[in-house]
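Q: What does the assembled structure look like for these inputs?
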Amino acid sequence: MADSVVMGSGSLNSGSRSGSSKTSTSPTDNYQLARRRTLQVVVSSLLTECGFESAEKAAMETLTEMMQSYITEVGRCAKATCEHTARSTPTLSDVVITLVEMGFNVDTLPVYAKRSQRMVITAPPITNASVVPKALIAGQKRTHPTYIPSHFPEFPDPHTYIKTPTFREPVSDYQVVREKAASQRRDVERALTRFMAKTGETESLFKDDISAFPLIAAKPSAIPYLSALLPSELELQTLEETDSSEQDDQTDTENNSSNVSQDDQTDTENNSSNVSQDDQSADKENVVLPPGGVVPTGKANEENMIDNPYLRLVKKHKGRRKKLKFIY
Amino acid sequence: MLSYKQNPDPSGLHSRRCMNRKKDKGFEICINNINFQRKSVIGYVELTIFPTVMNLNRIKLNSKQCRIYRVRVNDLEAPFIYNDPTLEVCHHESKQRNLNYFSSAYTAAVSAVDPDAGNGELSIKVPSELWKQGDEMKVMKVYIEFSLDQPKGGLHFVVPDVDGSMAERAAHVFSFGNQNSTRFWFPCVDSYSELCTWKLEFTVDASMVAVSCGDLVETVYTHDMRKKTFHYMLPIPTAAPNISLAVGPFEILVDPYMHEVTHFCLPQLLPLLKQTMSYLHEIFEFYEEILTCRYPYSCFKTVFVDEAYVQVSSYASMSIFSTNLLHSGMIIDQTPVTRRCLAQALAQQFFGCFISRMSWSDEWVLKGISGYIYGLYLKKTFGVNEYRHWIKEELDKIVEYELKMGGVLLHPTFSGGKEKDNPTPHLHFSIRHPHTLSWEYYKMFQCKAHLVMRLIENRISMEFMLQVFNKLLSLASTASSQKYQSHMWSQMLVSTSGFLKSISNVSGKDIGPLIKQWVDQSGVVKFFGSFAFNRKRNVLELEIRQDYTSSGTQKYVGPIKVTVQELDGSFNHTLQIEENSLKHDIPCHSKSRRNKKKKIPLMNGEEVDMDLSAMDADSPLLWIRIDPDMSILRKVEFEQADFMWQYQLRFERDVVAQEEAISALEIFPTPASRLALTDILEQDQCFYKVRIQACFCLAKIANSMMSTWTGPPAMKSLFTRMFCCKSCPNIVKTNNFINFQSYFLQKTMPVAMALLRDVQNLCPKEVLNFILDLIKYNDNRKNKFSDNYYRAELIDALTNSLTPAISINNEVRTVDNLNTDVRLILEEITRFLNMEKLLPSYRNTITVSCLRAIRMLQKNGHIPSDPSLFKSYAQYGHFVDVRIAALEAVIDYTRVDRSSSELQWLLDLVQNDPVHYIRHEILSMLAKNPPFTKAADSLLCNEALVDQLWKLMNSGTCHDWRLRCDAVNLYYTLFGLTRPSCLPLPELGLVLNLKEKKAVLNPTIKSEQGPGGPEYRPSSQPNFENRLTFPTQEEEDIDMDTVHDSQAFIYHHLNMLERPSTPDITLFQLFALIFTGKEPSSVEQAMLSMPGTPMPTLSKESTSSKHGDHHHHHHHHEHKKKKKKHKHKHKHKHKHESKDKDRDSHAFSNSPASGRSIRSPSLSD
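A:
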């Protein structure tokens, strides 16, 4: 088809460029080589028809190039013509118009085709396109909703993105469930700790067999209270799952504390405390609120009254203080 | 501003030195540099003094470890002497090693710098130009520049060793100390009775916050904007020991309920702070309500710091807490503990900070009141049961301590200064100063103080009690607002007499006998009670005997309440305990024999059905209680039949009675006791702590009943019923700790069950498997609370199940011959301990329990005994609870294996560990579980150890009063009061008593020891003895002391600096140069002692004799100077100081202040 020709011509250039430097074996290159070879065969047979016995390589190449250009031009024009009439696939008449445009007498074509001495060229062997093996279809695929054009790819199998149905009877016996959960957890823990012990430093309770009960070596930390006091992520997760009300409380207080503004005075206070804490770690969520606009909520009226000296503005130094002169 | 208030002399021992009284009424501290890298502080203080006496020519202040650059009085440079006898209590050359000697020397040293007696380490000479002004009693301003470098006490720097700026590293510094320890970080009058107003300034890095006492007036940037200065004002007169400071990159939380209250914590802990502080306002409300008085300060600050000295310390308008008190909402066990700490801190804000004390002997009033109102808070918040349980616990504690160690005296009076008058001769330390007290004693002192307050309440009613407190507070707050009459300020100091006067004014009652019994006298009462029922007379014959001869006891005479529960009801009787009457006849009410069907009325009006079949058919008595309200500080051992205890346990509603019954039932292992205990265990209306106690009692009874026990192991079926699944009873329910009572029970029952033993004295297999299953099936996924304490207790249960391994021929413990049960236990422990590294539990409770379990496995011979694991966990950098548990294991190992290298390792840690609390704990744990005692010989007990410990308490712990007392305690535990027996026989020495001009036998030599080789003591020894034993009031002697001590001080410092001895000699020569041409008047004293010094001694000895020599020059000079030559003295003293300072300036040449000291005007004149 014309499409492929156009694309072929585009890739031809690149292919020839890359071909000049080294023989490449990519499928596109193979395709180009095959096409080139086919064209050469066609040119050769035409030459033979006309009575040539041999031709120089350069001449062959030139003729092949001309042939290719011609066919390409036919394809390009045919496509342009068909698109001009708001279609996407060229028809026979498009090709005819193209040929006419290019100054070719179309009427001669049937005669030429039926000439007696023409050589029959065997079609190039068609390599079967490697068929992608069909994936196992599990479950019912979803059909496209109406707003998705049908040429879009189909939905994948539901098990890949919705759920995987299993067909074994779930275990519902409480004892077994608990048993399983317990031993699973224990196995995971044991495997994990063993792994950690194997990969890191260990301490041992027995001098004769160091590997018997490996204990991960105790490593002092610079700030030991952090890990000892802060709840672990696992615990936090559990907390979130089991109780969301408490979290609500927390966000509530955060809102309270961050809704400190409204009048100018408190605004400056906020700014000031921000300034004072700029140097501190940025991840601090604090009583201090961002300097930007804050929407006061119902509780804000009460909060407006906060006048805590630690939230006040840090003053700039004004002149020498009298008592400092003793020191400096 | 203000004038002078006469401070009553606390002891009568120290006569007032007229030259020396002063009052500081305004105090200004400015710390302008805090260097976290070098751990140093630079600043100045300015005191405003109102002289109250004529001829104020010398000012004494307290100061320790501060380097003082210059002192000015009213802008005139003033010479000063810095001299601290507590640095080295007994002088280095002394070979004395007995504790009696040390204790008296230490007491004398502390007295010598006691601010209440007008003493101090820093003696400032008022420039002569100002004498005239002083005579007119005009204001004087004393200005002192000082610095601190790597302070060992007073201020604690925590600088974690990670990358980043100091703020990112969460580096912080805070003040701490035992009692009045402010002198460690700035020069002041370090007394609770010297009040003044404060102005404080701290310049810190812009990323830091400085939290201190009083109102934050403003915060100002320095020129370069890299630092901020925090200005604080404290207008309420406050004593220096109540001043504190904390600086760090704190996160700030304004209390959502009280905006004047601000909380501070270290970075990342803000969520915990929010949770922890969410109920503080309730405590505030409670105290303000009962005291009908507003919180006295205009603001309150709480700071949570790492490596805290104590969990709670209160200062004026702020409290410093250990950061380990913070907890998240998931933690159950820590919550009440933290609430209690907050309540304690707040109670001390009223009594302790706002109201201070007149003298040390009035301390009991403050501790008593704050402890008492804290108890009221407990009663309100945690309930009456919890309160009564707490009172019983405290009472048991004090009784146990006093019976073991001897009495605790709340209000000591010191007449005279002689040793004979020591009010507590049974103690190995003096109670004259807070700094000489053992920490344990002080804790018991506080405990007794609040119990006595409760006794007073019993006598005068709570209403009057609160009125008294209100009166004290309102007088104090009126006084505090009076700015111009400082004599008013004495209202802010509480004294025993003032407090008692208030009580009698308010209540009109005479509580004299009560005070005499419990406050002026030490000891508790020990009762033994038994009874017989006389059927004929229908009378209960009660016999109450007392033991008042053993140590720690006293005789009680007075009323005692006895409650008798009869069939017809409960009756209170008040008996009079008199001198000779032991027997008391109590008529019984229940004439008729039991009327079946009739319900039995209880004390609280309740009427219950009882199964009366167990009781004696002839007696109407169900149970008898002696002193049920705990209105005597006593221990009661009462005999009654087992069924009576059982009735008491089941039907008496008072938790104290129930607990008493449970302890009594331990010796009655019968099925009836078992049933009573099981019933209590199952009853969920019963107080959970009673049920917990019943668990342990049941385990004991089950073990005693081993052969006759029927059914499953004790508590197993109960636990199954309460906490296991209905469908599969071997699996525990998934955790749900919403009901705290059953949570505590669930935690405790396995621990108690593990104490069960079978006929082979092993833990029954069934029980062990049960506990292992609990661990296996433990599932906390659906729980709102953390299960870390629960899991830790399950490990404790495994530990409890361990019994000694059967050892054949002392074979080495290997993996192969491990008992199968032990293998299972060990696997659990290994897994738990390893998991803790990946998912640490709150406060690392699981690691703590695992370490204990491993030590137990070692101790019982299941695995090889080896301290290396514990030593690695004891390192600095682990969480403090883990370190303590590991150290406890090492200490236990040291005792069991008699390891001298481990003992050495521990003692090294005592000297070098950065955390003060750890040092303290090592010494107190060593004293509790000593490697050996004075009673038994041990290889560990040798001369080197004695010397090391002696050095530790003599000079090694001078920066921490508490630690020094701990060292004294340990020394006492190991060697007793006399010379340790492992030392070689002491040299026979004559001690020259200069005062009486006669020689006495060296007091080190005890009569039981034989005479050693004749040798005289070094010359300075007699002087020292003399000084200690016969303190005199003449000025001559005082001056002599001072100089003598400063001499020792300088020598000590030179030693510490490890300088060659030549500078020492130059120093000496310098003095010699100044005093040439003067005839020493006291030369005969020197001559007397000189021949005693053996000639061929070590060079150290000869140096010391030089010192002795030098001292006499000095003495002489002092003596002469007294008459006229003031100027000369100045010069000399300043030479002396500046010499010292010159040395220092080598080390601190970059310090701006040090350069100035060379240009000191006193040098140039």
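The CA atoms of residues 94 and 1021 of chain B lie 7 Å apart.
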